[in-house]
Amino acid sequence: MMRVLAAMSGGVDSAVAAARAVDAGHDVVGVHLALSRMPGTLRTGSRGCCTIEDSRDAWRAAEKLGIPYYVWDFSERFKEDVVDDFVAEYAAGRTPNPCMRCNEKIKFAALLEKALALGFDAVCTGHYARVTRDADGHPELHRASDWAKDQSYVLGVLTETQLEHCLFPLADAPTKAAVRAEAAERGLSVAKKPDSHDICFIPDGDTAGWLAEKIEMQPGEIVDETGTTVGIHEGAQAFTVGQRRGLKLGRPAPDGRPRFVLSIEPKQNRVTVGPERLLAVEQIRGIRISWAGRPVPAAVVDPGSGASGCFEVLAQVRAHGDPVPAAAQVVTDETGDPALVITLAEPMRGVAPGQTVVLYQGTRVLGQATIDTARSPATA
After folding, report:
1. Strands 139-143 and 129-133, sheet pairing
2. Which residues pair with 375 in a beta bridge?
3. Domain limits of the chain?
């Protein structure tokens, strides 16, 4: 038996995960993380995961399970580590993933640190992922049984030390429908609660409008791939690589086909657009590497050459994106900092700096890196 701290978001997944931890005989305590700096905020539709309504739903689930329940205020840490980071990344022309930062900095850093300090053995969440052990007993992160709901991508930031204290009871859940059915059988009121989506701290889903209140926007040029001005924007930071809608171009493309955002240059306050084919990327360079468990031997950098060997991987750049076969290598730059160079076996569309690339071998998550640059074969 372990002392388990169950992170309860107020959704069906975390409620069933906590219930399964209780069934397994663990000593379980439920905790809801108050992340919003406006605790009176109410849920809008099915957006968000940290409103006052979610806190009440989590409390009702804990009461049904007969476990102690607490609310911990992590709003200051959340603002600094997730919200402020999100704004800073967009201001620099990058496209961040706030769920990755929340898992890295809040749920499996700040929360786990506090849990261990209080004598808990593990933190339990409702993520669809699996932790196993290799032949030497070291933890590994793997995809869940239900690939349609698999969330191992957003957990790719977890380290070996963190994986030692993670409990994912939904790893073997066959489908989300089965989890909802189980919640109903247990009498949990969240059984039919809609899934949260989009960015929890932007409740109306208008990311561009929200950013406009946080970043000083200045009008600038929209140019095509030849450098010809084709429109005017109200702020380069509000765009995302791969974006098609909302460009408001004054000059149509010569072939009449849609144009997409190819790059964003905040310093020049310029947005470049072009045909869809120019979104294809064949090589990715990632920084801020972390390994989910022990790195594979081929990823260890040789001190003499300053590079590792090449190793075969599957590269994924979105939470529910298709993994692409690739060859990866860790290299060090002139400052000695490591970078991950990933050469894709087939082009990947619309890769943006700031996104996270997660590497897999089979179902195992090897690790992740933040995309720094992406090279297109059409412009090489």
Report:
1. antiparallel
2. 283
3. 3-192, 216-274, 280-375
Domain 3-192 matching CATH 3.40.50.10310: the answer reads no
What is the signed CA dihedral for 150, 153, 154, 157, rounded to 10 degrees? 140
Query: Mean pLDDT: which of 12-26, 236-250, 301-315 is highest?
Result: 12-26
Mean pLDDT, all residues of the chain: 90
Q: Does 9 appear as a known binding residue?
A: yes
Reading phi first (left if > 0) and then psi (alpha if -120 to 50, else beta), residue 31 is in beta
**How far apart are alpha carbons 280 and 262 in whole angstroms?**
10
CATH architecture of the domain formed by 216-274: Roll (2.30)
pTM here is: 0.90
Whether residue 49 lies in the annotated active site:
no
pLDDT in tens, 91-137: 888 888 898 899 889 988 899 999 999 999 999 999 999 999 999 99
117 assigned binding-site residue:
no
Tell whether domain 280-375 is in CATH 2.40.30.10.
Answer: yes
Q: Is 124 a catalytic residue?
A: no
pLDDT at 367: 97
65 contact partners, CB below 8 Å, separation of at least 6: 15, 18, 19, 22, 28, 30
CA distance 370 to 88: 14
**CA 375 to mean position of chain CA atoms:** 22
Q: How many residues does the chain have?
A: 380
12 is in an annotated binding site: yes
CA distance 141 to 134: 10
